[in-house]
Design brief:
By secondary structure, the protein is an alpha+beta fold. The chain has one domain: 4-Layer Sandwich (Double-stranded beta-helix), CATH 3.60.130.10. Helix content is 24%, strand content 24%. The chain is built from nine helices and 15 strands. The strands form four sheets. It has a seven-stranded mixed β-sheet, with helices on one face. The chain is globular. 38% of the residues are buried.
Length: 304
């Protein structure tokens, strides 16, 4: 019996069952998951008790893995995981597994920007393709992850609006998203990682040919536009793209793995009592394909 995918809220996320992703996958299973990603853009895998090594092995089935920026910028003694492909999405204090971050902790301040709508690593010249997040400990309430379907948001634009956004190029930087919450305390020596990079606002999936908006809180401007005009326009576009009919909210259970395509959805974490309760998730992600910003968009979800 092959894997089964059923649509969930708003139809752009799918729940995957009849598969054990802790074990080595067959070629047919990998192909079925890839097809599911093309169809849904977000896939959830309930009750998968992955180890760190199993999560890395599962992720590697679908492309070239990324090294996290937070891991690169952290000192070795501050990392929970020395394997830089494995991201620490928790509220533990740096280098600890039994102490939560304090309210004014620098790393807590940085991570609070994950509550803004964003696409992973869009601040790089090659943004993330697929991201995979696995739940180890979840709090008693809150801490959902919300996803917004950028294909449906594009489809809902008027003809005139589609023409306006078609060839726009946006400037992405991790600095822009952190500025929105007042964070500026970066470690020295990583200035190259903070420089803005250009990405087209409209992307086209090479297999499905569906267009989507490539929005993110990492965007700070539009090439050729005055900054105030660009940010006002982007704010309106963000409000349009995150209307309830375009959003799926995943309520985490321990053992859930959620996999999504950063070129067709945005996401954000929701608030919880992170000063009292633990939220411990592990993230892996794949490199995307470098877009050509001077021509018609031709970006794919991931490097397969």
């Amino acid at each position: 019996m092959g894997i089964y995918i059923r649509p969930v809220q708003n139809g752009f996320a799918g729940e995957v069952t009849r598969i054990n992703i802790c074990a080595r996958l067959s070629i047919d299973e990998i192909a079925a998951i890839e097809q599911g990603m093309d169809d849904y853009a977000v896939l959830t895998f309930p009750d998968q008790p992955l180890t760190d090594q199993q999560q890395v092995a599962f992720t590697a089935n679908f492309g070239v893995m990324e090294i996290t920026l937070a891991g690169q910028m952290a000192k070795p003694e501050e990392r929970r995981f020395q394997q830089l492909e494995l991201g620490d999405i928790s509220n533990y204090a740096r280098g600890a597994t039994n102490k939560l971050r304090e309210r004014a902790d620098k790393h807590r301040m940085y991570a609070l920007a994950n509550r803004l709508w964003h696409s992973d690593a869009s601040f790089r010249a090659v943004g993330a393709g697929y991201t995979l997040l696995h739940a180890r400990i979840v709090p008693s309430k809150g801490a959902d992850t919300q996803f917004a379907d950028m294909r449906a948001a594009y489809d809902a634009l008027s003809t005139a609006e589609k023409q306006e956004v078609e060839d726009l190029v946006c400037e992405h930087s991790i600095v822009f998203s952190r500025q929105q919450i007042g964070f500026t305390d970066y470690n020295p020596g990583f200035e190259e990682h903070l420089k803005p990079v250009p990405h087209k606002l409209v992307l086209t999936h090479p297999k499905t040919r569906r267009k989507s908006l490539y929005l993110s809180s990492h965007i700070g401007g539009i090439a050729g536009w005055p900054v105030p005009e660009a940010r006002a326009f982007l704010r309106d576009l963000m409000e349009h793209a995150t209307q309830p009919q375009f959003v799926y909210a995943h309520k985490w259970n321990v053992g859930d793995l959620v996999m999504w395509d950063n070129h067709t959805v945005m996401h954000r974490a929701t608030r919880f009592d992170d000063l009292k309760e633990v939220r411990d998730l592990r993230r892996t992600s794949l490199k995307g394909v470098r877009p050509e910003v001077r021509q018609q968009p031709s970006v794919i979800a991931s490097a397969a």
